[in-house]
């Protein structure tokens, strides 16, 4: 029970009203009560601060793991687009779902509108061959294209790249580590499709001999 200032004043007044009790006998009790209350309050505040700090850190860690799941989906989407459009330095407005439309768009001359048939054929073949390989891993563009976008919008992506050669960077390029994060973080209803995205990302990384995450 926390001692209130009003309680202390009432105790002093009660003591003076009793003829057989000295004020000196009540004063140490009041001070001692205050000291105990103050000490107890400091302990409680310290424990609350410790608990709040721990909860805050756990919240940040949990959010980072969610962002890592979103980063897996983002990296695969980006990887597919760069694979189909290797000459494009910017992919603003490009998605897995609109690849066929973008192939038509960029194979036309911007001024004359003339179609570069060879270039269009090359891009179309790259797209078809990649989709055929990913399909063997369970990937379906009509399903996993919107799914990946939804995951990115839901969980976000990593705010900054890890330091080079750090343990964090090594973890981000470890398929087993990423798999454990997905299993730990993702809801069960998303698990199968998220693991499919991760498998496709690992496959593409092996094919081009590059890290899983390209910054």
From TrEMBL:
Pfam families: Speriolin_C (PF15059). One of its GO terms (cellular component) is centrosome. Residues 68-215 form the Speriolin C-terminal domain. PANTHER family: SPERIOLIN (PTHR22192), SPERIOLIN-LIKE PROTEIN (PTHR22192:SF17). This is Speriolin C-terminal domain-containing protein. It comes from Synaphobranchus kaupii (Kaup's arrowtooth eel).
